[in-house]
């Protein structure tokens, strides 16, 4: 791999020097000298390495600072790791003796290439030990609990070493948890059980204006969503994000990013459009490469180091073309359809970033226009030899391949909370692992227990001995083991897995990162309408004596596998943020029922109001686990919609017979058509809020500008609100503050649409799920088409 070679070159000056011999360190060298902060290659000025102790209040560990460009080391003060010394050109360097044999083994030598070290260690590991490396844990959400018994169990009994951190970015609780777990796994190493540090991973956690652990806060720098980064049409923002976010990830102990999501967003109704780089394959390819380069480099250079994080591009070879926009996490959306025969373009979006350390595969079963499997097998990607051969054989990808979470379970398996083994539900669990190993996968997402994987190893060996497979189980597992261990060696986990709490605090949400993230947010905001220069250059002081009206709204949410829908209610734009800019901020009065749900709103008197700002989210069709598009109680299939009011799918372009569907026992195919049925939108009240605001302006008799602030995760049909809006700004995962600064003329908009906004639902129905930019875009009264690449600044349309 290119990066492994680059990292090796970073130490060629040391590696080329003659070695005078390796000795065990009997005492810390130069321990009275002040040691600089840890970080690969920070280095002492000359002479010998220095050593110091660090504690986070729970775990105490030692930090070694090597001379020159030698990497810093860390290890538990209570573990079994000792130091070895090497004299190189008159300077003493430290290496970690991680197996206690008093010798510097190949895998312990930080001067060597990561892949060489990984191959050496994997060759010493048993099938059982490597099986633990092949597990990727379920979501860990509560680091404040410290190292739990359940975590100790999967670390010690299953040998799991890849842990998904799904908690927030609070260093005060995360750093002690990370260090405690790293110290614990050091104690598990013996002469027979090689030491393997914990590889913490994370889904995206830096998006402004989102929920969950992406919620706004001062704990980490905040950036636009990937779709927002695409809206800047400036790859430098994506590269900056990768470089800065990766440093913050490392400050939280995270060494693998479960991102970027680079599925082509060719189906506008798909729930996960907001996490993509849009629908254009060339832009997707450019931004994916910038993201991977930024995350896997260190200090702005194309070299593995202390700020490097493994990138995992997902979801091969594209999960975007779900029929009707349905989502592959659930049975309703388990089929991806290619009526335009455009699979190659979806795969092409991944090919420019195959230097990523890892690839995650898609959930969906891929069908052609006739409902037949694209590659002959009616199975999800993990089980699909055809799609996997395009990656492994046609494109010679040698990195780690990971299943998405839940893919190894069937929904009917005993004790399964959910299961996405689409097309392989009838196989026994061990048989599923055997199949997925056979397609070239290395790791299994959301699996904490190696039992079925080890059963699959036995099945593999039986097939090998029967002449059905070319390599034995040990060879196959060591192949994956070497790939996985390379992910741990590349970012330097074997050198330093511990976190200094003071350094983490300095790195997280540092001023330079916060400023860069906010600059990207501002550049990502798109202005699509600006009648009569409603939005014009202004100063913050111009608004300090003004009054703004911001209406309220609510969403009913959707029930999901995790429980009933969550009702939310509040101002459509954060009032506290608005108060930073306006002298007076007013909103609606609400009447609520016994369950504290709003039954009616009353708009205020707008006599003294200078501006109306209406925040609107994209029409909410539901979440990943809501089985959207299919009512399980009534067995009704219904359409997803990009408009707020109910949409009945009875137009001439609506399929009366679906492309996808299960094969039934009588030999027929299930029809998943939603023809004649009506959409279900949780936040229709957003349009009510807009109409209430417009009516209040009319009632005032004043000419008060109405600015619509659209917070988009999908394209939207603008027909319902465009005509009555004096201006419209669109944000993709941006904060309310960035949206307000553009809406108030404090920052001239630069963003452009990274996806088409359709004219109506008829063109949405007519477009093909796998084909980009094939809708008729909405055209407003000014003749502006809301097409891919469109955006306005103060002078008019921005040149593409």
Automatic annotation (TrEMBL):
InterPro entries: Cellulose_Degrad_GH3, GH, Glyco_hydro_3_C, Glyco_hydro_3_C_sf, Glyco_hydro_3_N, Glyco_hydro_3_N_sf. Residues 691-794 form the Glycoside hydrolase family 3 C-terminal domain. One of its GO terms (biological process) is glucan catabolic process. Its EC number is 3.2.1.21. It comes from the Bacteria. Residues 1-27 form the signal peptide. GO terms for molecular function: beta-glucosidase activity. Keywords: Glycosidase, Hydrolase, Signal. It is an enzyme of class 3 (hydrolase). Pfam families: Glyco_hydro_3, Glyco_hydro_3_C. Residues 25-48 have a biased composition (Low complexity). Residues 210-485 form the Glycoside hydrolase family 3 N-terminal domain. Residues 25-55 are annotated as: Disordered. It catalyses: Hydrolysis of terminal, non-reducing beta-D-glucosyl residues with release of beta-D-glucose. Belongs to the glycosyl hydrolase 3 family. This is beta-glucosidase. It comes from Tessaracoccus oleiagri.
